[in-house]
Design a protein that fits this description.
Helix content is 51%, strand content 13%. With 393 residues, the chain is α/β, with parallel strands linked by helices. The chain has a domain of 205 residues. Helix 2 links the parallel strand 1 and strand 2. Helix 1 crosses helix 6 and helix 11 packs across helix 12. It is globular, with a radius of gyration of 22 Å.
């Protein structure tokens, strides 16, 4: 085997493992554990008198289109009213968001005219939290009525330091490429998180809905881009488990279009690189064991090596395709076919034609392009914590 062949097959393995193989391997491990009776029982739901006090925290910026619905949704959660507190933070809002929140006496409103980013707002609000648990959720996502109860039951286990809810993206036959791709992506992500949680721990929560023990909150650097991911992984790094609870879910519409989704993905990629640098000790497999393996397999590879390997894979395949032997020619055709399908997805999106079979490869291409753009943004130091949220349908 030549050096080029070795590089090709190594790159192919990394790409396959990062996007598909890890999921397959994880699924097999989980099935074997269940076969041998290692299927963790779901914690029982505490009776209302025994439920802990909880604070629901919402950081909102110019969310006048959603804020009334969000407040009604929050107030309708199935949880004892005397044990559920509400804190809404509206730093920098210039529309009617703040005035709308003031109309509800049940809500504690914290507002400052200056806008310093979500993590600065959350940190300021944490000083007002007096409950042992806090649930974070976005202003434009709606929670299922049982979300709070399904989250807090996991804290009966003292080893649990955080709970990640499920993000659900609404989809339909009229979805654009962003909607179809994002919906498929989050369904796959949800499956991985369920298996990660069952094996040991979720590696990072989504900001749409997650919870932590208040006592485990630590100040987060003000320039942190994806604070939800950083906060929960830092808790896992301390030896606590981050549990996944699919029956506590936040629902939101897909990005309005691929341009809006790309804006979001580039920011996440830049924040992912930042988090990898700051959480470098977690790469030590000898110290953190299973958590390190999950972290590298599920997150680090996708934000670093795997997108690079896609480019290496194509370059090496072109070189190898001119040599005798049909396998490399077939693989090159398959690669070109995939990118042509992505291009068709792009053209269909531009013409507002709906054909989901082409939207998946297009979304995959956009997701990996975002890693390159995010890495460049991180290296330039141009990713601000103050950003405009991607427009949703």
């Amino acid at each position: 085997m030549t050096v080029i062949e070795l590089i090709f097959w190594l790159a192919l393995f990394i790409v396959f493992y990062a996007y598909v193989g890890y999921g397959i391997f994880l699924y097999i491990i989980i099935r074997l554990r269940r076969l041998f009776g290692k299927n963790p029982a779901l914690p029982a739901m505490p009776e209302d008198p025994h439920l802990p006090e909880v604070t629901l925290m919402v950081a909102a910026y110019n969310e006048e289109d959603f804020i009334d619905e969000k407040i009604r949704n929050s107030l309708n959660l199935d949880y004892p009213s005397n044990k559920l507190k509400f804190i809404f933070v509206t730093d920098g809002s210039t529309d009617s968001t703040t005035e709308r929140i003031r109309a509800y006496n049940e809500i504690t409103l914290l507002h400052e005219d200056s806008r310093r980013g979500k993590i600065a707002a959350v940190e300021r609000a944490m000083a007002y939290v007096e409950t042992p648990l806090v649930i974070y959720t976005d202003a434009n996502t709606m929670l299922n009525p049982q979300a709070a109860k399904n989250i807090v039951r996991h804290y009966e286990n003292p080893k649990v330091g955080a709970v990640a809810g499920e993000k659900r993206v609404t989809s339909g036959n009229s979805d654009s490429a962003s909607g179809a791709g994002e919906g498929f992506y989050w369904k796959y992500e949800s499956a991985l998180k369920r298996w990660d949680s069952e094996l040991y721990s979720v590696v990072g929560a989504a900001g749409e809905l997650f919870s932590i023990r208040t006592e485990l909150y630590e100040e987060v650097p003000k320039d942190t881009v994806i604070e939800d991911f950083f906060m929960t992984l830092r808790i896992a790094k301390k030896g606590y488990k981050v549990v996944y609870e699919p029956e506590a879910y936040a629902v939101e519409g897909p990005s309005a279009n691929v341009k809006e989704e790309l804006k979001r993905k580039v920011r996440i990629a830049a924040g992912g690189i930042q988090a990898i640098v700051r959480l470098a000790p977690l790469l030590n497999l000898f110290k953190y064991g299973t958590l390190s393996w999950q972290y590298v397999s599920h997150r680090v590879l996708r934000w670093t090596i795997a997108p690079l390997c896609l480019a290496i894979l194509m370059a090496a395949n072109i070189v190898l395709a001119v040599s005798p032997g049909g396998i490399y020619k077939i693989l090159l055709v398959l690669q070109f076919g995939f990118y042509i399908a992505a291009l068709i997805g792009y053209l269909l999106e531009q013409r507002q034609l709906k054909f989901k079979a082409f939207f998946i490869p297009y979304y995959f291409f956009i997701m990996n392009y975002a890693v390159y753009a995010g890495f460049w943004r991180y290296m330039k130091g141009s990713q601000s914590v103050v950003w405009e949220r991607a427009k949703r349908k």
